[in-house]
């Protein structure tokens, strides 16, 4: 997949990631990856009454990691924890309008 084949949605989430940064008063935080040799992601979440009130991320990585992180946050925000846990890698890829094969094979590390 060359640049011309990247979906407009994927490029929009790469260029203008949603829910990026650190939210105020998170009651959960997690990280995954390795800053020295690959993609690294931190997620901040605030859950009230089993509902994801707010969620954000910081990412150090390629365009696929940035766009996937952005879409993941968008898909999870406002969902119950059970609904959010059901979001699959394929759901994220499909919502982005596709992802290059070499980015798919790395598995989305936060799923």
TrEMBL record:
Taxonomically, the superkingdom here is: Bacteria
Q: Which residues form the signal peptide?
A: none
Task: Cite the NIF system FeS cluster assembly NifU N-terminal domain residue spans from the record.
Answer: 8-107
**Pfam families, alphabetically?**
NifU_N
InterPro entries with a match to the protein in the record = NIF_FeS_clus_asmbl_NifU_N
Query: What is the protein name given in its UniProt record?
Result: NIF system FeS cluster assembly NifU N-terminal domain-containing protein
């Amino acid at each position: 997949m060359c640049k011309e084949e990247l979906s407009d949605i994927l490029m929009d989430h790469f260029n203008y990631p949603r829910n990026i940064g650190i939210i105020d008063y998170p009651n959960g935080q997690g990280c995954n990856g390795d800053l020295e040799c690959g993609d690294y992601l931190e997620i901040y979440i605030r859950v009230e009454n089993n509902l994801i009130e707010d969620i954000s991320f910081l990412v150090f990585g390629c365009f696929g990691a940035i766009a996937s992180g952005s879409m993941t946050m968008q898909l999870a925000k406002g969902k119950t924890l059970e609904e959010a846990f059901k979001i699959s890698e394929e759901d994220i890829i499909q919502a982005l309008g596709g992802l290059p094969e070499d980015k798919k094979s790395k598995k989305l590390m936060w799923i």
